[in-house]
Amino acid sequence: MRAGIKWMFLIIGTTIGAGYASGRELWQFFGHESGLAILLFAMFFSLSCGVIMSLSFKKQSVHYLPVLRIIVGKRMTGIYDVMIFLYLFTTTVVMIAGSGATGQAFNFPYWWGIGIMLMALIALFMKDINGLLSINQFILPPLLGGLVYVLLLFTIDQELELFSHWREQRNWTAAFPFTALNILPLIAVLGAVGNKVKSKKEIWVACIGSGFLLGIISYIYNNSLIQIADELLLYEIPLFAILQHYPVQMIIFISILLWFAIFTTAASGILGIVTRIQSYVNKPLWLIVVVTLVTMIPLTALGFSTLVSYLYPIYGILNLYVLTRLLLFPLWYKQT
């Protein structure tokens, strides 16, 4: 159970980043009439993670390529290898830009937030992969607890009905691109730790637990955002539209948690990138991290909300093939 929870935190830490924790990603895909979509997302997410981790464990992989080759087939492996690399690169840029946007909320210069994120990522990978696993177990419990607390408090204060529109579910198809968007980085991250998983019990604790928790949080979060839909245009980070109703101390506390959510996802993205590069270049992990981060800095000038608005829907659609292969994996894999 303890090992399974460790992997569950890695999965959630990879998923809850600047896009998700800020509310921007949820609002981009869900919004009104999305309760069924979120339920389907939780189910698809758990199943997909289970397939990825099982393959990673079976192959005892140290980077994502062996797992990717089985999921998409030999012919498509080269295409999706490039796509995963570009996805991880650009979404890590989004996380770094999200750090800058979080700093701006407190009137700090945009580049200060970016600089702090870069230094923290370099320091983390001085301890190799173990640093990431340790920090996830330390950060994610208060992060999830704080986020759920704020969302439930907002729900109670505003007297919101959690299931008032359950019969209106025309946006159920959003479950597919949203799950697809979040699955691709997990192939990269979980494919890099296959040699560290010890049993299949760990896998199912991690996958069912992460899908269940993300489903509940996503539903409550989305329901809260619906109530303030008119105000969201004024905020680069939608979570701050909710926090404006509360004292500044709570805003500071949640902003710190939000920054750590951004940090853990950026770290997971960097892990997927550098382990893949290391299969070609025999250099220390921290050195590859430094070079990778330096190349990302110019792209952060595009801004957080702009990057999310354009990149995430594109990747959600492009990754639908991978999601289909994962959901149908038990059927087609037995025939190969």
UniProtKB/TrEMBL annotation:
Keyword Transmembrane appears in the UniProt entry: yes
Keywords assigned: Membrane, Transmembrane, Transmembrane helix
Any coiled-coil regions, as ranges: none
Membrane-spanning residues: 7-23, 35-57, 78-98, 110-126, 138-156, 176-194, 203-221, 250-273, 285-304, 310-333
Domain of life: Bacteria
InterPro entries: YkvI-like (IPR038728)
Record protein name field: Membrane protein YkvI
Source organism per UniProt: Oceanobacillus jordanicus
